[in-house]
Specification:
elongated, four-stranded antiparallel sheet
């Protein structure tokens, strides 16, 4: 199926395509007439991520672009979180209930809703104020809060309604966020883009404040523990100094050997600690890698932040007590473990990481692991420095031990240990001091840089675009539907399709004509051929081609048959008779189609075929003249038959007309015999033995099925060389060349 054929198929149905396209465009016009007017307001916020400060063990901030991108993603997700949208919805409903100029006024039909009729508006206002103050969401299992929830939906302020009209986008490569909102009122749009930033900042501040307090508590606990270590080392150093007084050279070797033993023990302990830190760092890196590849859908959970913070504060105090007791108190350790288990349980339902937003919770976990990673890396670096120092001092003490003297070396080693501990303590104290200047929301400095203003005119409804898309869509769909029909149509509608399906010789194609509108004889009227219609010219020329093929095939008695009934055999025979008569030929038509004697009825012929018998008479031809009927076609006679359910072998007498057909053929130039359809009757197979040639007529509407293939095999393999070819009838003019 080539492109030219498909184009012709579309062209043939051009009016269907045009009407469908116009209908689609009209539907687009009508649809845009009823589109609601929308007013869009725009606001802009800056996050200050590029200047952010965090509570960290490291005083040097590293500007990480990837981390900032992740923060922007978290901020945008937080804007769309149930808590922020919920607070915005509560604020809007409270505004409409209290303001003299509400954004939305319910219709009379909506006011008849049971939700509206059963609402205690004073109680609703109180619930909304409490929720906005506590930043908690409504619970549907509470009857009063469920009514408030339904009222929000009635006003159209639900989470889904707000979210689908709210757009939060980052201005590429900047600290700015663009916030847009679309609604039916310009004041409502401006109010949302301005107020949602406030709701976001309140919620985000709650989250970051919790994390800041937790980090400060951890730093404070570490500083207390390190202070205790410094005090212990200072006491050991001072006691040792007071003991040795002025160094005695004789005691140096003994002191140095003792120092070697202590340093060896310390080195072994420090190496063991170093290995443990490395294992912990590997574990933290693996957890970070797992979290980076994990996405968590947001869920709603209950708020347990206060209890979690309380438990963590208790742990901080317990850690301080544990450090003061030397780190070996089992009761304090047990309490810390129980508090940690309780914190873990509350964290699974706590909004600390996002008040129901699992994506925010995942971000908090990653930040906690990052902090732990920094601590481990710092401790690991300090441990490696200690190992190097222990090795250096051990080498020095061994030299002193074997050369005599060691008390001063021991004192120097204790002094170095004290200096290392003091530096660690200074680091923790510096971090705590730096943290005091950080804002309560330390992750960013969120500010609104552009206030949203009510729009002066509604957004364009894009009528031209919608109408164009509607029309083009109908054009495409209609064309595609037509092409699909062409693809699934397996009829032999073109000469090429016919040949691929049958592999039969095609004598000619006959174009489709309307004999109801124009009688067949008018197609053959002589006159100026230029004045004749195009379809008439094509029809006549194709019949002339067929006449030429039959004249040159060497056959005189031609059986005309078909695969199925109503394929146009009678029309082809009548047309051929007229075509041969135009070339001054004498023609005889024999109607042997007992199932449908349409030729007999058309020419009002004598139905004598079944009863005629020559017998032994010598004047056979004179008797034949008596049963022929002269037609309105010049030089053309016809012998008719009766209509009945029988075959030629069952009804024709002995020495019948067909058995003497060769004698009759001497008096005619060509004889046409019409037989019944091959698929449904055996008539044509029985008649084939009386004919010189066989021509089959096939309609272009036919689909070649298995029964047709059996008839094709009969014509090709069981008729000798009698089969002349096929005529493809009723072909659309645009398909004649394919």
């Amino acid at each position: 199926m080539d492109l030219a054929y498909l184009f012709r198929a579309l062209l043939r149905r051009k009016w269907i395509i045009i009407v469908s396209t116009v209908f689609g465009s009209a539907a687009g016009v009508i649809g845009t007439m009823f589109l609601p007017r929308n007013f869009v307001s725009y606001a802009q916020y800056t996050t200050g991520f590029s200047q952010t400060q965090r509570v960290s063990l490291s005083l040097n901030e590293i500007f990480d672009v990837n981390q900032i991108d992740a923060r922007f993603t978290n901020v945008i997700e937080t804007f769309h979180s149930p808590t922020v949208l919920g607070m915005m919805a509560y604020d809007l409903l409270l505004h409409d209930l209290e303001s003299s100029r509400p954004f939305r006024i319910l219709t009379d039909k909506e006011k008849k809703d049971t939700v509206y009729l059963r609402t205690d508006f004073e109680k609703v206002k109180k619930i909304l104020r409490d929720k906005l103050s506590d930043m908690t969401l409504l619970t549907t299992y509470d009857p009063d809060e469920k009514r408030v929830f339904d009222l929000i939906a009635l006003y159209g302020y639900g989470e889904f309604n707000l979210s689908k009209k709210l757009s939060i986008e980052r201005v590429p490569h900047t600290d700015y966020l663009d916030v847009t909102y679309s609604s039916e009122k310009p004041e409502l749009s401006a109010y949302v883009v301005n107020e949602i930033g406030v709701k976001f900042k309140e919620f985000y501040t709650t989250l970051t404040t919790s994390r800041t307090k937790e980090s400060l508590s951890k730093l404070d606990s570490l500083a207390h523990s390190k202070q205790k270590q410094v005090d212990s080392l200072r006491k050991v150093y001072e006691d040792f100094r007071s003991k040795i007084g002025t160094p005695n050279i004789g005691d140096q070797a003994t002191a140095a050997m003792s120092g070697v033993q202590e340093l060896t023990t310390s080195l072994t302990t420090e190496q063991s600690r170093n290995n443990e830190l490395k294992s912990q760092l590997i574990s933290v890196n693996e957890q970070l890698a797992t979290l980076n590849s994990t996405t968590v859908a947001p869920i709603r959970v209950e708020n347990n932040n206060d209890e979690i913070l309380s438990l963590r504060e208790k742990n901080r105090q317990l850690n301080s007590q544990l450090a003061q007791s030397g780190g070996d108190d089992p009761d304090i350790k047990t309490k810390i473990e129980e508090n940690n288990k309780r914190i873990l349980q509350l964290s699974s339902t706590s909004p600390t990481a996002g008040t129901g937003n699992s994506a925010q919770k995942l971000s908090e976990k990653k930040e906690e692991l990052q902090t732990q990673k920094i601590n481990l890396e710092t401790d690991l670096k300090a441990s490696e420095q200690n190992i190097d120092l222990y090795k250096s001092r051990l080498k020095e003490f061994r030299e002193v031990a074997f050369s005599g003297g060691g008390a001063e070396a021991t004192a120097n080693a204790l002094q170095n240990d004290l200096n290392i501990a003091q530096k660690d303590l200074e680091k923790y104290n510096s971090s705590i001091f730096a943290s005091q200047d950080i804002d309560v929301a330390p992750d960013f400095n969120f500010k609104q840089t552009l206030n949203g203003q009510p729009s002066l005119k509604p957004e364009s409804n894009h009528r031209t675009l919608i109408v164009g898309i509607s029309g083009l869509s109908m054009l495409f769909i209609t064309s595609l539907f037509i092409l699909i029909l062409e693809f699934i149509d397996t009829s032999v509608r073109t000469p090429s399709f016919f040949f691929r399906a049958t592999k039969m010789k095609l004598l000619t194609t006959i174009n489709k004509i309307d004999i109801q509108k124009k009688p067949l004889k008018e197609y053959f009227e002589t006159g100026n051929q230029i004045d004749r219609e195009k379809s008439s010219n094509i029809f006549i020329e194709n019949l002339r081609k067929l006449r030429f093929e039959l004249e040159n095939c060497g056959k005189k008695v031609i059986l005309v048959t078909s695969f199925k009934p109503k394929e146009g055999k009678s029309l082809i025979i009548e047309s051929l008779a007229r075509a041969f008569s135009m070339s001054k030929k004498k023609i005889l038509i024999i109607d042997a189609n007992f199932s449908d004697n349409s030729l007999t009825r058309t020419f009002s012929a004598k139905p004598a075929l079944e009863t005629f018998s020559l017998g032994s008479q010598d004047n056979a031809i004179d008797k034949i003249w008596g049963i022929t009927t002269l037609t309105n076609i010049s030089n053309t006679d016809i012998i008719g038959c009766n209509e009945g359910n029988y075959t030629p072998s069952e009804v024709l007498p002995k020495n019948n007309l067909l058995m003497n057909i060769q004698k009759i053929a001497q008096h005619y130039d060509i004889i046409f015999i019409e037989g019944a359809a091959l698929n449904t009757h055996a008539d044509s197979k029985e008649l084939s033995k009386f004919a010189d040639g066989i021509v089959t007529v096939v309609s272009s509407k036919d689909i070649i099925r298995e029964t047709d293939k059996e008839s094709i095999q009969f014509l090709k393999n069981h008729t000798g060389n009698k089969f002349v070819g096929a005529v493809l009838n009723n072909v659309n003019e645009e398909f004649l060349d394919f």
